[in-house]
Structure formats: C-alpha cells, structure tokens
Specification:
GO terms for molecular function: amidase activity. This protein has 15 helices and 17 strands. By secondary structure, it is an alpha+beta fold. The chain has a single domain, classed as Amidase signature (AS) enzymes, CATH 3.90.1300.
Length: 463
C-alpha cells in the first residue's frame, strides 16, 4: 500500500507526530496528498486551486528544519487546505464570485498566518458557494462540489469543498468559515468533524467579500474554524488559531450532557433513527445524560437569525432582486418604529435575551447535544426549493433553509461554540451527525466534552 492509499488512516495529529519523529517526511506527505487529489478530486470537485510549487518548497524546508534539530510548531509539515473565501497571499481567492475570478490577495487572513506559523503547509483552496451565501456548494467559476459518499448529493455549504476534501483524505485539515452552519452542515453531510468557535475567539478577518459599497453593520455571526478527521485535530487547530491550550489536557471527567432530538420541527426519519441509537450508546457510558426540552422555538429563533443575517452579513451581490425586495419591505415595516436603526436595535435586544436564556438553560450541563442537520445530504437542487423528507413515515416537503440548516442557525445567533461529530449512517450509507453546543467563551471545555462524546459514539469512516 502506498502512502497515498494509506493517508486516510492518519488524522492531522498523527501526521504531525510521524513527521516530527521523521518516520514520514513532509515532502512525501505533500506528494501523497497531490496524488490523491489527482486520482479522486475529479469526481467531487472539492479542491479548485493548487499551490504545488510553494507547497513542495515549504515541505522540503520543513524536512530540512527537522534534520537540523530546529524547534518546530505543532502543525509542522502537515498539509492543509483553505476555503476559497479566505485570503491567502499570492494564491487566488475568489469566494466563487465572477468579480473575484482573478483576485490574488497580498496578505494572508490572520487565521492562515497562524496555522502557517505553526508549520502547516497550504496545498490548495477548496470550493465554496458564491460569497458563502448557500448551504450547497456551487458557483459560476468552479461549478458544483459533490458529496463524497454519493455524487448526486450535495456536500453541504458553504464550506462544502473543505468537508469533501477532508473526508476523502485530500488534505489532513481544512480551514473554513461559518456564518449559518457553513462548517457544521458540510461536516455532517460528509461524515467528518467540524468546529464553530465562539464569536471573537479566532481572528475573523480575511474573507474576500462583501463587494457592495453600502454601509454595513459589524458582522456578529461569522467565525473561522477547522474541519478535521478527529476531535483531537479540532483541539490542536483551535490551540493554534486562538492561542489557548486545550489539546494538552489528556483527560477530563465524563461530561454532563443535555440531549434533545425531539423538536416541534421536521426531521428526516433516517436522522432520527441514528440519533436514537447514539443516545442509547452515550447513556450507557460514564457521561451523565439527560433528555431535555429545547429552550427555544426554533422556527422563531431561525427567523430572528435570518433577519440579523440580512443586517450584518448578506450582500446584494448574492441575490440582488431579493436584497432590494427585502430592504423595501423592511424600510416600510420600520418606518414608524424608529426606522431601520430601530429594527436593528430590537433584533440585537432579542439576540441578547436569547443568549441569556440559553446560558441559564445550560448552566447545569457541560454541553447540549442536538441534531447537526434535520436531513441527510440532500440531492443537488435549486436553492430555495422545498426539500423532500420522510418525517414520521410520511413524505413531506420542508422549506429549504430549515431542512438543511435548521439546527445550525441558532448557534450563530448566540455566538456560542459548537462541534459536529459523525455518529452513524442512514440505510443509504449517508452520514448522520450530532451537534454538541457549549457555553459562550468556554470553547476548550466544550472540546474536551466533545472528545469524550466522540470517543463513545463517534463513527468516522473513509469516503
């Protein structure tokens, strides 16, 4: 078996250790990644831009540094890919938008600086939806990214290229962005691990948008985080991105887990079945697991998220007609209630109230486990079209955004950390994941709880 064949049996932590011990060379690992990309990427269209010359030079330099006995970083020699929405100096960054087709940034995003300072080697950029505006991954420059488990289905979005690449072992680690599930939905659909940090824990500069010149409010939704093949990789990458230290902790007491998978909200029977199995398995462990009711009405919470997304993130470049229509009605709705500033202030007050309610709810627990997505990976379809699902044995069409990202949006609204863990497969072999949500700002504690849960019920398989 060649290294290229065997690469999927390593997570980033194992590769870093093998490179440090010089049982593998960084140069050979990078070449193995490129061999897998050559063989497998065509079927999924995950990686859209390669950086072969610089990556090979950096790999040779990494091996020479080890030969000289130099101190090295925790990701020394590890090949990584970066979502095509994040600035990478000297490497094309398009965000899937025609106006950025030939854009080459002069500097790296701060997060990319940090992983490279830790020794990671960027081997390429991965596909994303146009301006990160969809939960499927497709754009007019590079086309559509397929799910590595079934090519007729989506990999999720907007970091779908990252999740597909990591699932196939095309790279050891991926860096994505998450405004409304853009790390977590693809991680669940592709059967890998994803982490959305708390707001402001990781520098969030460096996206290639927005492009419009309209005045914008500060984005309190978007974060940058990793997609990986294990929770220990998420912990290692979080250490690098945040400057905190959680990966060094070897053990933690079994977590106190609040668990909810029964919502007044549509969920596909394939997801329900796997979550019930996972709940029984976790309840049989040393963790303290309690089924609880949701503190939110997700329909209302998701509506609040969508409204805030329009104020803080959405750009007219993604859908000019909808953008104009929304702001026309919003202006009319707000005209006698303090105008747009008044409406925005009320949204922010509601956001603070929901955050306080959640912190009170989770105070007695270490984390809250909910479904990662209401559906398994959906078939490629037009954005906004209702999604067919089987709910309680009956065929049902569910509104697009809630069918795909219905359990993701509230976490961005709150600004809390969240980890997606693959826990099983549907009868059709499609991944199913859970989402482990933590207390605001307590990312390290959440990751330690997620590691226990993943060790108990996680099921990573090779795509």
């Amino acid at each position: 078996m060649t290294l290229a064949d065997n690469l999927v049996n390593y997570d980033a932590s194992a590769l870093a250790e093998a490179i440090r011990q010089r049982s593998l060379s960084a140069a050979d690992v990078v070449e193995a990644c490129y061999a897998r990309i050559e063989r497998l990427n065509g079927a999924v269209n995950a990686i859209v831009t390669l950086d072969k010359e610089r990556a090979r030079a950096r790999a040779r330099a990494a091996d020479l540094a080890l030969a000289r006995g130099e101190a090295v970083g925790p990701l020394h020699g590890v090949p990584v890919t970066v979502k095509d929405a994040l600035h990478t100096a000297g490497l094309r960054t398009t965000a899937g938008h025609e106006r950025l087709r030939d854009f080459v940034p002069e500097r790296d995003a701060a997060a990319i600086d940090r992983i490279q300072e830790a020794g990671a080697i960027v081997i390429g950029k991965t596909n994303c939806s146009t301006l990160c505006g969809d939960l499927q991954t497709s754009n007019p420059i590079f086309g559509t990214t397929n799910n590595p488990w079934e090519n007729t289905r989506t990999s999720g979005g907007s970091s779908g290229g990252e999740a597909a690449a990591v699932a196939l072992g095309l790279s050891a680690l991926g860096i994505g962005t998450d405004t409304g599930g853009s790390i977590r939905v693809p991680a669940s659909y592709c059967g890998v691990y994803g982490f959305k940090p708390s707001l402001r824990k990781v520098p969030s500069d460096g996206p290639a948008f927005p492009l419009d010149a309209a005045p914008r409010r500060e984005d309190h939704l978007t974060v940058i985080g990793p997609i990986a093949r294990s929770v220990r990789d998420l912990m290692l990458c979080y250490d690098v991105l945040s400057g905190e230290s959680c990966s060094a902790a070897t053990s933690a007491p079994p977590p106190r887990v609040a668990w909810t998978h029964e919502f007044a909200f549509p969920m596909d029977d394939a997801v329900t079945a796997e979550l019930e199995r996972a709940f029984d398995a976790l309840r049989g462990s040393a963790a303290q697991v309690e089924k609880v009711a949701s503190p939110f009405d997700l329909w209302k919470t998701n509506l609040s998220y969508f409204m805030l997304n329009m104020y803080e993130f959405k750009t007219k470049e993604t859908d000019a007609a909808f953008y104009r229509l929304f702001w026309m009605f919003e202006w009319m709705r707000s005209a006698f209630r303090g105008g747009l500033d008044g409406s925005y202030a009320r949204l922010k007050a509601e956001q603070r109230e929901l955050s306080g309610r959640f912190e009170s709810f989770i105070e007695a627990y270490d984390c809250w486990v909910v479904p990662a997505t209401p559906s398994v990976a959906i078939r490629h379809q037009k954005t906004g079209r209702s999604v067919p699902m089987t709910v309680n044995g009956k065929e049902k069409k569910v509104e697009y955004w809630n069918a795909v990202g219905g359990f993701a949006f509230f976490v961005n609204l709150l600004g809390n950390p969240s980890v997606v863990i693959p826990v099983g497969r549907s009868k059709d072999g499609l991944p199913v994941g859970v989402q482990v949500v933590g207390k605001h700002g307590q990312d390290a504690s959440l990751l330690r709880a997620a590691r226990f849960i993943a060790d108990t019920i996680g099921q990573l398989r090779t795509a």
